[in-house]
Specification:
The protein has about 375 residues and is α/β, with parallel strands linked by helices. The chain contains 13 helices and twelve strands. It folds into two domains: about 35-265, 3-Layer(aba) Sandwich (Aminopeptidase), CATH 3.40.630.40; about 275-370, Alpha-Beta Plaits (2-Layer Sandwich).
Length: about 375
């Protein structure tokens, strides 16, 4: 470097140094990946005790398990943000809980509750995802958990006229589409597997019900019923520190399994649509630039024969691969109302079927598709 050039550089050296010092921080902030975020919701609280046992209140059991679960996740996963809707005995509305989930951009929402029944012999754990299952027992659980709305003033305004005690109000969920249903079911299945196979709790299965707090949360969500506070043995178990830690450990193990599954899905955001050689669909030129709706009927780990009994007589089913699952669909329409008619026509054979959407071969949310339509 010549002396002349070095002399000219001296006045601007402080400025260049300042830029160099600032650049690494800016680049690191831009490159830092978003942490996986889980929101844990201890049901009820404050003036809402939830279900009552002989020695325990539901709100305290829920909080004990929620805190133990969150502490274990935080201790073992530095790349996970753990948030609680409540960490103390306070009252929160269902809408406040859902708002908290959405404000924190949660990747998973875990609601923890304790069940109750008039029959004191009933026991066991069950995990719910969002949906409309018309089984009376599922509707009863949803009504009981949604009934916390009644503690709010002018609840019908907040919840858009929804009445938790009216069966008619639940009809709205029949036409609801949940874009997170697959991942919700995956986590729910892992939770039940841990409860029953690893921790010997009685299995009441994975179920669907119309919970407002799940409906309004924009992420994979489950509501866990740990057991029955009205069953003497289960109440004592869930009231104990050991019992609460056992249930927290089971949910934690399911979380570990679920998070690993999510991380393996490299094509999660841009799944490719794949067809078998014997299956036909509309050409891409007919739907280019338009959203396409399909009805998803089930997911499996390997491709099925066209004559497999799982199709229940339905022909010309397509599939697409997402992660390590092959997801079968029927119908292909560019109008939502037409695909909704197909879903209604097959719901007796496939009650859990739901509408999905694609744009130019890439999966998008039904909400996005309807806005484009």
């Amino acid at each position: 470097m010549s002396k002349c050039f070095a002399t000219r550089m001296l006045p601007i050296l402080p400025y260049l140094l300042a830029c160099l010092l600032c650049m690494p921080t800016a680049y690191l902030q831009a490159a830092a990946p978003k942490k996986f975020t889980v929101v844990i919701d201890a049901g009820h609280g404050g003036r809402d005790p939830g279900a009552m046992g002989q020695i325990a209140q539901e709100k305290n059991i829920n909080l004990g398990v929620a805190l133990k679960l969150g502490q274990k996740i935080a201790a073992n996963f530095k790349d996970v943000n753990v948030f609680y809707t409540r960490k103390t005995d306070v009252f929160l509305t269902l809408q406040e809980r859902a708002n908290f989930v959405n404000q924190n951009n949660a990747d998973l929402f875990i609601c923890i509750h304790t069940n109750a029944a008039e029959n004191r012999d009933v026991c066991g754990a069950e995990t719910f995802t969002l949906g409309l299952d018309k089984l009376a027992s599922n509707l009863d659980v949803a009504m009981r958990e949604n009934a916390v709305m009644l503690l709010e003033e002018d609840y019908k305004t907040t919840y858009q006229g929804f009445d938790p005690n009216s069966v008619e109000s639940y009809i709205m969920f029949e036409f609801m589409q949940d874009q997170y249903i697959d991942r919700s079911l995956s986590f729910a299945s892992s939770v039940q597997n841990q409860f029953t196979q690893q921790y010997n709790r009685k299995d009441r299965g994975v179920r669907q019900a119309a919970f407002w707090v799940l409906h309004k949360s924009a992420c994979p969500s489950v509501l866990i019923e740990l057991g029955f506070i009205t069953n003497r043995a289960e109440e004592q178990f869930l009231h104990s520190t050991k019992g609460q830690q056992t249930m927290a450990d089971a949910i934690y193990n399911a979380f570990v399994e679920y998070k690993h599954q999510v991380e393996k899905k490299t094509a999660l955001n841009t799944p490719k649509t794949t067809k078998t050689t014997t299956q036909k669909s509309r050409s891409n030129t007919q739907t280019e630039g338009k959203p396409v709706y399909k009805v998803q009927i089930f997911s499996v780990k390997s491709i099925l024969s066209d004559k497999d009994p799982a199709f229940k007589g339905i022909e010309n089913a397509d599939y697409y691969k997402e992660g390590n699952l092959y997801k079968y669909t029927v119908g292909e329409e560019t109008e939502f109302q037409k695909i909704e008619e197909i879903r209604k026509n097959i719901k007796k054979k496939f009650p859990d079927a739901f509408v999905i959407a694609f744009l130019n071969g890439k999966k998008i949310s039904v909400k996005e598709a309807r806005e484009m339509e």
